[in-house]
Amino acid sequence: xxxxxxxxxxxxxxxxxxxxxxxxxxxxxxxxxxxxxxxxxxxxxxxxxxxxxxxxxxxxx
Length: 61
Fold this sequence. Notes:
Blueprint: H1 2-22, H2 24-36, H3 39-60
Helix pairs in contact: 1-2
């Protein structure tokens, strides 16, 4: 079980680092736009991301 957790965290870190590595300017622009979003909009995006991730995990597993 712990191997799966560490594998998931490792994959998350690789994917998180991919965009700033490939396109640092675009990443900075994206982050500045995210800072301008209202909290409610950011929560909706976060929830949608979690729901999609849970659905994909359910389908894969």
